[in-house]
Amino acid sequence: MQAKTSPEQGCDTAKRALARQKAVFDPLETAALLAKELPLELPVTVRVSSRAKNVVLRLRPGRGLEVVAPAGVSVKTLLAAVSNRRDWIAAAVGRLAAEGLAARPAREFVRPTRLVLTAFGREWGVSYAARELDGCRLTLRGPGEVAVTGAVEQPRAVAGVLAAFCRDRGGALLRQALGEVSRESGLGFTGLTIRAQRTRWGSCTLRGRISLNFTLAFLPWELCRLVLYHELCHTVELNHSKRFWDLLERHVPGCRALDAQLATARHHLPGWLGAVAD
């Protein structure tokens, strides 16, 4: 004869089962396990989302594979999801690599001792001093020296103030350079915005307003110059038609060869810059 289960006992049993189902795994340990299932070396992060209904895999340019896990999902399920998408991951990483956006294996943050805006031949030495501050501060100590004080052991805080300084100085230099190139070429523009874009070096609107990525200042001058002319040519041809390339070729002979270099030019960017978004 089978014993009967009361409604209260059944409710308690269901609650215990639900609690076991929602047991939280360690995201760091799980990410390390998932990385071993990948067809190539790639940074992996795991994020648990109460809104997610299924396991979602996202390749984030420059940052690797993000695995979004629904609450209560098992590590075994995550491993199966990654293993089943090995071919897709390999193909997607290949496409990103062709665009110069592939993620690199995570490395220890190294504080730079120099800031170099290669396109304009500008350079500053960097010194560091730990202080009991919330975050970091950057002070200009002379024409070629800056000092970072505060929480200098925090990569994101250090990278944040360095990036802000480079954006300010690089943006001013890019603004001046675009004006000079505009006058030389006779190609006008209606306005300029300096941005910190992840995937674009620049853009141009239908009304002739140009946006430039401040990280252009880290590139060799010939590549930076190509982007300036590229966006100015878009004020005439807002496309990548033959007429656009012919116009760009008139101003920058050999532009297609330079454009091929630009596709993989992110290796010119300093490594510390990646900590800004970490």
Description of the molecule:
- Helices cover 40% and strands 21% of the residues.
- By secondary structure, the chain is α/β, with parallel strands linked by helices.
- The protein has two domains: 7-98, no CATH class; 154-276, Metalloproteases ("zincins"), catalytic domain (Zincin-like, 2-Layer Sandwich), CATH 3.30.2010.
- Strands 4-5-7-6 form a four-stranded mixed beta sheet, with helices on one face.
- Helix 5 (155-185) packs across helix 6 and helix 6 packs across helix 7.
- It is globular.
- The protein starts with 6 loop residues before the first helix and ends in a 16-residue tail after the last helix.
- The model is unreliable at 1-5 and 13-23 (pLDDT under 50).
Features of this protein?
single chain, alpha/beta, YgjP-like_metallopeptidase, 21% strand, three-stranded mixed beta sheet, 278 residues, 8 helices, DUF45 domain-containing protein, Zincin-like, UTP_pyrophosphatase-like
